[in-house]
């Protein structure tokens, strides 16, 4: 299976980058073709410009500035999001990716006033996330990233398929042991993806 891995952590020698490398390595070990998309390394521009917004609904005009990313998304049969959670949300670069690449004509289409998904070719979805917050604090805040992955993205891709959701909470108080245990968990889950 062709798997697109989206990564959004700017620090090369970080735990987030280690999780990304583990994700990619384990998927490859399992025999998947991996399209490793490190948004910072690729210098993805997350800003939805005035022009982008004006042509947002004009397919295929809306693809001109993000065509290569659109092609990568269209080629994917699996999607893995590997990112830290900052202030109970995705980093701006990842949010900008969704705003600029998941366009009308690409991820959805309006047909008779109803949204129809254009991402049914993606058969599997997973998320590998790190939170500074404890599980309770994330729950109390409504845990928007979890809802986006398990509800919004799942509904756009395939609402009846399960989602692999892996989260290391309380990174503010983590230990080498908790990080190693989660890294191993991610490796195992990606080998079974």
Describe this entry's structure for a reader.
With 193 residues, the chain is of the alpha/beta class. The protein has a single domain (2-192), classed as Flavodoxin domain (Rossmann fold, 3-Layer(aba) Sandwich), CATH 3.40.50.360. The protein has helices spanning 15-29, 50-54, 67-75, 92-101, 135-140, 144-157, 176-191; strands at 2-7, 33-38, 78-85, 108-111, 114-117, 124-131, 163-168. The strands form two sheets. Strands 2-1-3-6-7 form a five-stranded parallel beta sheet, sandwiched between helices. Strands 4-5 form a two-stranded antiparallel ribbon. The longest helix has 16 residues, at 176-191. 32% of the residues are buried.
Oligomeric description of these chains: single chain
Strand order of the largest sheet: 2-1-3-6-7
Helicity, as a percent range: 25-40%
From the N-terminal CA to the C-terminal CA, the straight-line distance is: 10 Å
- Which structural category fits the helices and strands? alpha/beta
Mean pLDDT: 96
- The rounded Rg comes to 17 Å
Largest sheet: 5 strands, parallel
CATH superfamily caption: Flavodoxin domain
Number of domains: 1
Shape: globular
Q: What pattern of helices and strands is seen along the backbone?
A: EHEHHEHEEEHHEH
Task: Summarize this structure as a short list of keywords or feature phrases.
22% strand; alpha/beta; two-stranded antiparallel sheet; five-stranded parallel sheet; 193 residues; Rossmann fold; 7 strands
Short précis:
Helices cover about 40% and strands about 20% of the residues. By secondary structure, the protein is of the alpha/beta class. It is globular, with a radius of gyration of 17 Å.
């Amino acid at each position: 299976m062709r798997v697109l891995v989206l990564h959004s952590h700017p620090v090369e020698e970080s735990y987030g980058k280690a999780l990304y490398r583990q994700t990619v390595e384990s998927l490859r070990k399992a025999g998947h073709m991996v399209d490793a998309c490190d948004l910072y390394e690729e210098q993805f521009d997350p800003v939805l410009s005035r022009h982008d917004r004006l042509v947002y609904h004009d397919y295929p005009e809306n693809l001109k500035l993000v065509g290569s990313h659109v092609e990568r998304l269209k080629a994917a049969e699996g999607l893995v999001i590997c990112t830290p959670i900052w202030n109970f949300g995705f980093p701006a670069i990842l949010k900008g990716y969704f705003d600029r690449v998941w366009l009308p004509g690409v991820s959805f289409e309006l047909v008779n006033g109803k949204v129809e998904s254009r991402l049914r070719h993606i058969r599997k979805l997973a998320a590998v996330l790190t939170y500074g917050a404890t599980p309770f604090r994330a729950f109390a805040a409504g845990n928007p990233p979890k809802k986006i992955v398990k509800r919004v993205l799942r509904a756009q891709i395939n609402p009846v398929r399960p989602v692999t959701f892996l989260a290391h909470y309380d990174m503010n108080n983590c230990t080498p042991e908790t990080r190693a245990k989660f890294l191993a968990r991610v490796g195992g889950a990606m080998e079974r993806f």
